[in-house]
Design goal:
single chain, alpha+beta, Nucleotidyltransferase, domain 5, 3 domains, four-stranded mixed beta sheet, 11 helices, 11% strand, flat, Transposase IS30-like HTH domain-containing protein, IS30-like_HTH, Homeodomain-like_sf, RNaseH_sf, nucleic acid binding
């Protein structure tokens, strides 16, 4: 080991390194692990810990919420049950600390949770068709025009601007998409009812579109035109999500 690097191992710890060493030690790390993380000598870290514990008054600071035995039980359960959450471990151990405290205790030595690789053939054989209708506004949001005026000039002709105060024009459009296909857009000219939904969307668009998709499952929300009896009767031959 070079002499310069060897001397740096024995140099005085910085303020950040001292706080980090105390934090890791209270978390259960050994002096050797702390020294490797900080790039310092074991004796330097050990001396800092001795100074910290000697200067700390008995009973000062916030008391620790869990015992070392409970911490070990947390870690053993995390290793034995890889998919268990912190809330589940907290309930099994029967501790009174919060879920965040259990999560903090599990940060040391617990394997990271990653999604399990599950092979599913059902997802490959089913094509979900998502459908919905939405109204698009064809005008301004409210038609207001901002005017700079002084007090008392509210009703002057130069401060008045005509604007549209009736219903804002818009158009209602329906559409459906799947993983690799999409339906044609349907413009709905007036308020959507169950009969209009069947005659304008279901029969001419949805049924031919679903017949062209192998294993397709139709999805729609629970609005009144979608859940009406006439709509459900028209979709009897189509697989639907509940």
């Amino acid at each position: 080991m070079p002499l310069r690097r060897r001397r740096s191992h024995y140099q005085q710890l910085t303020e950040f390194e001292r706080g980090r060493a105390v934090e890791l030690r209270e978390g259960g790390f050994s002096f050797r692990d702390i020294a490797e993380r900080l790039g310092r000598n074991v004796s330097t870290v050990h001396d800092r810990w001795q100074q910290c514990t000697a200067s700390r008054r008995p009973g000062s600071g916030r008391p620790r919420g869990t015992t070392k035995r409970e911490d070990r039980r947390f870690r053993r359960m995390a290793v034995a049950h890889r998919t268990a959450s912190a809330a589940e471990i907290r309930g099994v151990v029967g501790t009174t600390v919060t879920q965040q405290t259990v999560t903090s205790r599990l940060l040391q030595g617990r394997p990271s949770q990653t999604p399990c690789s599950v092979h599913s053939t059902a997802a490959c054989d089913v094509a979900i068709v998502f459908s919905d209708e939405n109204r698009f506004c064809l005008g301004a949001s409210d038609g207001r025009v901002l005017v700079q005026r002084r007090p008392g000039e509210r009703l002057q002709p130069t401060c008045l601007r005509p604007r549209h105060t009736g219903p804002i024009p818009g158009v209602l459009v329906w559409g459906a998409i799947s993983y690799d296909s999409r339906s044609s857009l349907v413009v709905i000219p007036r308020t959507l009812t169950a009969n209009l939904y069947v005659s304008l969307v279901i029969q001419p668009v949805v049924l031919p579109f679903m017949n062209s998709i192998q294993g397709g499952v139709f999805q729609q929300d629970n609005s009144r035109p979608h859940t009406a009896v006439v709509t459900q009767h028209a979709l009897q031959s189509t697989d639907m999500l509940p």
